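USER: Write out one fold?

ASSISTANT:
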Amino acid sequence: MPQRLTSAFLPISNLLYDSLRKGIETIAPLCKEDKTIKGWRKHKSVLADIKSLFRVASHKVFRGKNEAEKKQSVRNYLNKARFLNQRLIAVKDSTASLLTAMALQEYSDYTSKFIDQIERRLLKREVIPAGEKIFSIFEPHTEWISKGKLNKKVELGHLVLITTDQNSFIVDYKIMEKQKDAQQINDLSERIKTKFPGAVISSHSFDKGFWSKDNLAHLMKQKIVAAVLPKRGRHTTEDKKRESEGEYKMIRRKHSAVESNINMVEHHGLNRCPDKGLAHYKNYVGLSVLAYNLHQLGNKIIARQKQEEEKNLKRKARLLKTAA
């Protein structure tokens, strides 16, 4: 039985088309300045041709039933991409502009990479290792985040570790690059100790994503009253006993406030970053955290003012009652 092509084609093929498109768009203005560059006068037509092959291949892969036709459409797309990539390299080698040559080299490298990945994944049925995957040629640092939620199965960006205190202020944050939650507890504990050397930390609360035996052992060694770290999977008698204690349950119930804090941070800019580049992404996250903390501070000040007003009103009411 022939093997069926999968939806892995779409993101990789989009990236291949983007790489060729940016390469051709880089050459187009160069042709007006350098008349020795031939064959790119109808660059819009060239782009239309490669886009047509891309759409045909996509249609065949996702809606077609004939596996041979699917593979042939992919081969046609890849053959055209190889031909255009060779032409990009030829222009790169002949141009006197260093910046243009560097840009063309970058797009050519991306094109070669995605041609190789499409061929391996769809024609040779290989599994592409996660470390080789790129999800944007414009933001190559972007990661594929699968949270396992029904409403948002997949997101693109970076995981951000946020730590809040009992007053809902963010006291620590970290942008994780190719890291997971379970790797963060040791470093997080040390950062909290360093930032608040005189503070007495009564409890740490984490969700199931941070679970590991080593993390639990590390938290147990800390001089804190309670360490809330729910276990994934099957629970032993000891696990059930640990998670059924009254103090554990009380702190665990308070952990739901963190989800509200995360939602509030998203509304302060962390839902989508408009800035370009990893450095600007990090700056944007820091500004979002600052905006969140300022909002929380404003809420605290307003709440305190309302409390003072209520006290004054009660005081005046008592004085009027006494005078009457």
Remarks:
- Confidence is low (pLDDT under 50) at residues 1-7.
- The CA atoms of residues 139 and 161 lie 21 Å apart.
- The chain has ten helices and six strands.
- Residues 278-323 form the longest helix (46 residues).
